[in-house]
Amino acid sequence: MPGTYPDDRRRTPRFLVDQPCTIFTGRHVWDGHLRDVSDGGAMLRGVPGLVADDQLLVRLMRRPEVAFRARVRGVSLLGAHIAIEEPSEAEAWRRAIAELAT
Fold first, then answer.
1. Considering the entire predicted model, what is its pTM?
2. Domains defined along the chain, listed by start
């Protein structure tokens, strides 16, 4: 079962996962992995060249019928920190990650 970070101070818990996803950015399509997920976003790995404020579409392999609009909030050695910012997609994102965190 995925766990949470023990000393995480975020508003919502992050759940450790290793889930494949497809990322659409500009004219590029990448295979990536979500390292962890939360109600507001995720840590994305495996997609080179991302910078803060890049706009993405994220398609989860477990939910290929839905693509979520996201924005890169920042990039670190761990990967790209992405946020699901579209209010109309927030509930669908929460349902999708609930499946990943079980």
1. 0.83
2. 15-100 (2.40.10.220)
